[in-house]
Amino acid sequence: MSFKEDVGTGLSENPKYLSSRYFYDAEGDKIFQAIMKMPEYYLTNAEFEIFSTQAEQILSELDVNGRKFDLVEFGAGDGFKTRILIERLIEAGANFRYIPIDISENVLNTLKSDFQKRFPDLEILAENAEYFEALESINRKSENPKVILFLGSSIGNFLEDRTVRFLNALYAVLNVGDFTLIGFDLKKNPKTILEAYNDKQGITKAFNLNLLKRINRELEADFDLEAFDHYPYYDPETGFAKSYIVSLKKQTVNIKGLKKQFVFDAGEAIHTEISRKYGINQIETLFENANFNVSKHFFDCKHYYVDTLAKK
Ligand code: AVJ
Prior knowledge:
Elements: H1 3-12, E1 16-17, H2 26-37, H3 42-62, E2 69-74, H4 80-91, E3 96-102, H5 105-118, E4 127-128, H6 131-141, E5 146-150, H7 160-173, E6 179-185, H8 190-196, H9 203-218, E7 228-235, E8 240-247, E9 251-255, E10 260-264, E11 269-276, H10 280-289, E12 293-299, E13 305-311
Parallel strand pairs: 1-11, 2-3, 2-5, 3-4, 5-6
Antiparallel strand pairs: 6-13, 7-8, 8-11, 9-10, 12-13
The structure holds N,N,N-trimethyl-histidine.
């Protein structure tokens, strides 16, 4: 489905929703980079710490013994989180090709030229594709052993059903002995979690409302950004952090590109994102149900976050 169709569908439903995949246009990419630098957004620092201090342990678990492998990354983005891992793997003498996959061609080109400068001897095969599409092409790429990276808690954006489908599909395309390393954000003090999505400077608010800006720009709509607010919410029982855009008054928005008007009640919410938080047992159950064997959990020092390595 296209942006246009998805916006039309989501805003016609009751309750209204928009998919978080549309956050990442050129401006959204930039705001997300600012989010990763915020002190409240502990996820990035935690994963950075894990890769800075434990890359050798990760490599030794992979058991590649100098054999060439493919490091395939889903949702690579600008490569910020992976840079340190790649650097440490090269230092430790690992022999691998890097295959970054992302839906944003823009961000992939930036990543490619940046990594080619930093790691001149690294072979990079970038692929512009959506997750499930990319899964299908994985085994056509090579016979090499594979390590699939899905970092940054991106898996937290999936609902249960999509998470299970993703892991099953991943299992199906891998060979016995291949690995996956997936980043999960862990349950913790709910206040810490809520703050990560509710920074005082309003960067996360700008990230969320950028969706309306994008609709204004690409679909010729007339959303008044002043008449909407950002509302983050965390439910410690389910581990679901959810973000909403809330209409501050009763208003009608015209989306020319859809030839349609949408009415918002005062206080009406549009659901825009889910960022799921996990317990370790839930993570183990997820992998076990998909037939993976969990090799090891790599935690940051605060145990806020985990990169779990699992083997087919
Ligand atoms: C990139 C999907 C992992 O859900 O934590 C950050 C996106 N949204 N602040 C997350 C995000 C609001 C982020 N992921």
